[in-house]
Fold this sequence. Notes:
The structure is a single chain. The strands form two sheets. Strands 1, 2, 3, 4, 5, 6 and 7 form a seven-stranded mixed beta sheet that branches. Strands 8-9 form a two-stranded antiparallel sheet. It is an alpha+beta fold. 25% of the residues are buried. The model is unreliable at 1-6 (pLDDT under 50). Helices cover 20% and strands 39% of the residues. The chain has two domains: 9-178, Trna Endonuclease, Chain: A, domain 1; 182-243, Winged helix-like DNA-binding domain superfamily/Winged helix DNA-binding domain (Arc Repressor Mutant, subunit A, Orthogonal Bundle). The protein is built from six helices and nine strands.
Amino acid sequence: MINTYNESQLHKTLKLFFAARTHGSTEVPYKNFILDIVAKDGSVIEIQSANLSALKEKVRLLLADKKRVTIVTPLVIEKRIETYSTENPELWSDKTLLSSRKSPKKESVYSKLREMTGLVEFMTASDFEAIFVDAKVIEQRVRAAEKTDTPNKARRFYKDWVKVGKRLAEFESETSFCGKNAWLGLLPESLRDGEFSSKDVKKELKRGDAKYAGVLLWVLARAGMIECVRKDGNLKVYCVRKR
């Protein structure tokens, strides 16, 4: 559960923006959860920067209670990494900027699908929506005296820096997905009326997204939007499910 004590600046900025846009209230207790935003019309908005599947149980409960649920997640289309030197990472008054560089990594809706595998059961629900916001962000790091792990012990290899924050520099367009037809729009248009395999999808997607063809088909199949009609050797061949 993200709350006001541990949320990032990126999360907070998006939460305040969408709360203002929907005339909503923030950090609203609801049963065993804290809801990021409850809009004026009673719908719920959750801001989630990563691991969208972590919202599975919350979304299931809200939909069962007849609530409309919108998940907002940033797509990092540009990230700048700032590394600072400071004796106390908790106090930014003595920080010194050591370096600033642009990261080559970029996200897309296709790359985010891997984080949505736990939400596939909700994707065709009329009261479930996902909004992807194109964002330019700044990741802030502090140089460590020696190579170290992260606080949650998640690193396979120790590094000489610790991430201390991420803030929104600018956000641009939004893309909304709600219902079967919207999600099927991720399939290349040339393939939607016939049979296709992951090999066909790879050929049609942009170079940076082609590697996510398998995840796209897995998600759409598990959500019941496409079905396997045959196999060509070890390759599954799909078509869009008509009903």
